[in-house]
Amino acid sequence: MQAHIAIIGAGISGLAAARTLHEAGHAMQLFDKSRGSGGRLSSKRSPFGELDLGGQYFTARDPDFCRAVTDWQKQGWIAPWSPQLYQFRQGRLQVSADEQTRWVGTPRMSALTRGLLGELPVRFATRICEVFRGDQHWQLLDADGQLHGPFSHVLVATPAAQASPLLAAAPELAAQAAATAMQPVWAVALGFQQALPTPMQACFVQDNPLAWIARNASKPQRGGAIDSWVLHASSEWTRQHLDLSPDSAIEQLSAAFGSVLGTTLPAADFSLAQRWLYARPAADSGFGTLADAQRGLFACGDWCQAGRVEGAWLSGRMAAGNILQSISAA
Ligand code: FAD
Ligand code: NAI
Predict the structure, then answer these.
(1) InterPro entries this protein is in (predicted)?
(2) Please, which residues have CB within 8 angstroms of residue 321's CB and are 6 or more apart in sequence?
């Protein structure tokens, strides 16, 4: 059978792999349980503009990733974001400007993944529940009982906890995924008709329920008519408040935001909350990707490398390299 590769997950890691395999001339099919691409780089449309509730920005350090970033900027999928940066530590708020280039998708974080997806074949709203092997090839079973295949290779590009059951046909890989802890994060978005009286556009927070504050409206091409903010709780606080209702999360994190600004916030004109159960790997693993080349089963994602956009992209590229090697060795 000619190579036909299934990729489960259309986040940045799955898409990095898909593009590499496509450029090498191989057929593939992407699957994602969501209605669009992006995974943790997803954005929400709201009456207050596009809101980035997951990944906030990314930096580029690896030379290959830096080259890709230059290309994405030329395509108009990303732009630099240079917020008025602050830090809050031991109850003190202060300016914390630096020289770091930070990139965001335009006009929303997920636009980068839309660009990478392009015309590649994808089935959205398709949750894969089982990956199993017949005599010669792989089949996938989705949550509606539909079978997909045959495939010569399968790449699982989901967070570790979701990858483990899909890797059951290669027990060592499944065990490694199961052993990877991922941390949760509560995210809250707030919109104010009247801009909050602060020059702050982003803030790294310590010693507080929050870990990060961003003036979403200050990112390029967000409209900016409404003063929108995104707050991320620390993973530690989130673990202790995992079962809060969205309304309580909004209330408690809004109060924490007020304490950072040293004021009581006016009532928000818009708010929403999202709980990310698998926001980030607890530690950087650095193994890059998982491969059972003999069976043709592979895994990638930030949890294989480092819990950042760059780590996820590098992992996807490495997985594609392993698949190409196994195709040429066959
Ligand atoms: P994901 O983006 O999680 O993609 C996995 C995909 O698999 C998803 O689309 C999901 O729907 C799909 N999927 C899962 N299970 C199935 C299934 N059974 N069947 C079909 N599809 C399935 N990184 C930074 O660099 N900078 C930041 O500022 C930053 N901030 C962050 C803030 C938050 C709150 C979060 C959550 C993450 C943040 N990150 C940040 C991390 C960054 O977003 C991730 O490292 C990166 O997006 C992970 O990409 P991925 O492809 O590995 O996984
Ligand atoms: P980066 O270099 O901007 O930040 C790395 C870390 O350095 C920051 O978390 C912060 O603690 C510190 N830092 C950087 N600049 C600072 C400044 N001017 N003042 C004070 N502290 C500063 O970005 P990098 O390395 O690409 O990391 C990505 C970001 O994504 C980090 O902020 C990380 O915490 C965040 N992230 C958040 C996740 C979540 O679930 N909330 C998941 C994965 C990453």
Answers:
(1) Amino_oxidase (IPR002937), Bac_renal (IPR034721), FAD/NAD-bd_sf (IPR036188)
(2) 20
SS (H, E, C) 305-330: CCCCHHHHHHHHHHHHHHHHHHHHHC
Q: Rounded to an integer, what distance in angstroms lies between the CA atom of residue 109 and that of residue 55?
A: 7
Task: Tell me the average pLDDT across 303-327.
Answer: 97
- Tell me the pairing of strands 138-142 and 128-133: antiparallel
> Can you give the pLDDT at residue 136?
85
Question: Which residues fall within 8 angstroms of residue 145, CB to CB, at 6 or more apart?
Answer: none
Q: Which residues pair with 105 in a beta bridge?
A: 78
Measuring from atom 38 of ligand 2, which residue has the nearest CA?
Answer: 280
Question: Would you say the CB of residue 159 lies under 6 angstroms from ligand 1?
Answer: yes
For the chain, domains (ranges, CATH) are: 4-33+126-179+285-329 (3.50.50.60), 50-109+182-281 (3.90.660.10)
Ligand 2 binding site (Cβ under 6 Å of any ligand atom): 58-59, 85, 87, 96, 98, 100, 185, 204, 232, 279-280, 307-308
DSSP class per residue in 272-301: EEEEEEEEEESS------EEETTTTEEE-S
Residue 171 in tokens: 């027990």
Cross-strand bridge partners of residue 291:
298
Residue 313 CA, ligand 2 centroid: distance in Å: 17
- pTM confidence score: 0.97
* pLDDT above 90 (res 223): no
CA distance 104 to 123: 26
Which residue positions form the known binding site? 13, 32-33, 40, 56-61, 128, 302, 308-309
Whether the CB-CB separation of 78 and 103 falls below 8 Å is answered with yes
Q: Return the structure tokens found at 183.
A: 């941390």
Is a pLDDT exceeding 70 seen at residue 224? no
Mind listing the pLDDT tens digit for each residue in 184-205? 999 999 999 999 999 999 999 9
